[in-house]
Amino acid sequence: MQYGFQGFSYALEDGDCSAASNGFDAMNKDFAKMKKDFGATMVRMYYPVCADKSVFINALKAGVANNMAVIPQVWFNFGDGDVWKQSQQAIIDVLEDSTYGKIAPYVFHSADFGSEPIGDGVDNGPDQFAKDLAVFKQKMNSYGIPAGISEDWDRPGTMSNNAGNGLASTGQKVKAASDYVHAHIMPYYHGNLQESQTWDYISKQIKFLHDVVKMPIFITETQWAWGANEHYANHNDVGVSQYTAYWKKYDSECETLKANGVGWFLHDWRGESTFDMVKDDGSYVIPNWKPRKC
């Protein structure tokens, strides 16, 4: 059941660790809705700006309460400063906690060393980043937890080569220090594609990951907006109909995804403007829908 729909990205972008959104009650309520209403079994923590172990403990507890796995993520603040060291330590602190440490490896499915860290140029560049990723991976592996990054592998000259048929130097280093591919496949930002053109691009990226990178694959981030937003103000093909068609196309391709060993996450649950499934009034952009596992 690792193929097809897994769950949602879950934005945690309030740096106040005592904020309600970082608390157990809010997470427990949201996780329960994801599971009951959409069949989600996993939550991808997204931009957990609070760099205290409490936010990861609360996610772990909500995972346990709802029988769901969690993917914690180190927050790099787009490369500004060294808050990532605090964020990384917060995850380690959970694993070493006398109360939660023993259960954490059964709840934390994997651990991401940032979201688009290569694109953001964090940690003084890719060479130092790859070294620190390798250290993070070794630490997570010591608890039985796989580690890697959540990133666009379609970055010609860095992650992929310019011909698009192999890995570039940075991609090779990241692969060597990773247990898996948590891929960003981003047609929303790719050449101002129309929604109806996106699957051709997505399928080519899946083939590249399957044939070239050759590691376990989740598509952890891909999106389509149901309205104009600051992420791409000039995009001319957004709306509820396109949003719905985009995500239901993923669901209709479940067998293709399974054949290539791919699971996917919907971006986002709530907190990313018109990329969200949950609207301000609490209703869903796509109601009465449970995407498939296969």
**How much is the average pLDDT?**
96
Whole-angstrom Rg: 18 Å
Number of helices: 10
Low-confidence stretches: none
> How many beta-strand elements?
8
**What is the helix/strand order?**
EHEHEHHEHHEHEHEHHE
The rounded distance between the terminal residues' Cα atoms is 6 Å
Could you estimate the helical fraction of the residues in percent?
A: 25-40%
Strand percentage lies at 5-15%
Instruction: Specify the structural class.
Output: alpha/beta
Number of structurally distinct domains? 1
Walk me through the topology.
Layout: E1 4-11, H1 24-38, E2 42-46, H2 53-65, E3 69-71, H3 83-95, H4 104-107, E4 111-115, H5 117-120, H6 126-141, E5 147-151, H7 169-176, E6 181-184, H8 198-213, E7 217-221, H9 240-252, H10 254-259, E8 262-266
Parallel strand pairs: 1-2, 1-8, 2-3, 4-5, 5-6, 6-7, 7-8
Helix pairs in contact: 1-2, 2-3, 6-7
Structural account:
37% of the residues lie in helices and 14% in strands. The protein has helices at residues 24-38, 53-65, 83-95, 104-107, 117-120, 126-141, 169-176, 198-213, 240-252, 254-259; strands at residues 4-11, 42-46, 69-71, 111-115, 147-151, 181-184, 217-221, 262-266. Helix 1 (24-38) links the parallel strand 1 and strand 2. The longest helix is centred in the middle third of the chain and has 16 residues, at 126-141. The protein is globular, with a radius of gyration of 18 Å.
